[in-house]
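Data's thin. Show one?
=====
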Amino acid sequence: MTMNDNQLENNNDELQQEEQVAESVLDQQDESIDWYNWEDEQTGFEFHGLGFVVMAMMLVNAWVKPSGFVFYACIGLVVLVHELGHAIAGLAFKCSIKSVQVFFLSCISYKASADPDAPAWKRIKWSIGALPFGGVTIFDENDPETGQYGMMCKPLWQQFVISSAGVAMNLLLFAVLYVVATLIPYGNAYVMVYSCARLSLVLAVLNLIPVCPLDGGAMLMQLLQMVTGHKFSAQFLAAYNRIGMILVFVFFFLITRWQDELFSVLFSLI
């Protein structure tokens, strides 16, 4: 063996050692990244200052004006049932759900676990807000590496079921509460039950309007895609959503009775 052969062998040994060190470093980085993805994420209860203050003010005001509390509690119940419909349908089709929020301007949030191996319902972040403008269920983005898949990777018929589940739950709640209202005498309990039934029906009908971001808009797009077999472009859907937002804003302020009931609670804080 010549000197050049010895040097070449030594160089090969050094390269192998460097490769082993590099692989161990990469393994440690991968482990730290995997650990960071879920272990450092906020779990348990979380309080949001501004939302918590607004919620406290509205509850104090509701204590003084019971009618405001009835409206606030009733619309909170029907929105919760609506969003539970989306969440239950999504979980039934093995969708990964990021968060479920009732009302906006979050004041209290809770997440049981961020471990990707935990059951899907434990990874949902549940939030309660202060402003009674509705709610939202947010699905995770598709991530094959973690095995988490959102709503958009599912067949169109499953997307349609998930989109319509909120309306279906509100109609079911309306039917149940309407029957209960016919069985109890007139009084505070009757007013509470009847108000919840009425608001549940109103929320179901509003969400059938075929514009985004209402459920009816998503349902219309899914039905059209199923019938035509044509998938709409992202640009078209974005434009459709923007137009829908404007129409919903205008439509909301044209419903004077809903507007009066809602803002009578909000403006009473001033």
In short: Residues 236 and 242 are 10 Å apart (CA to CA). The first helix runs from residue 3 to 39. Residues 25-40 have pLDDT under 50 and may be disordered. The helical segments are 3-39, 49-64, 66-92, 156-183, 188-207, 215-228, 234-254, 256-267.
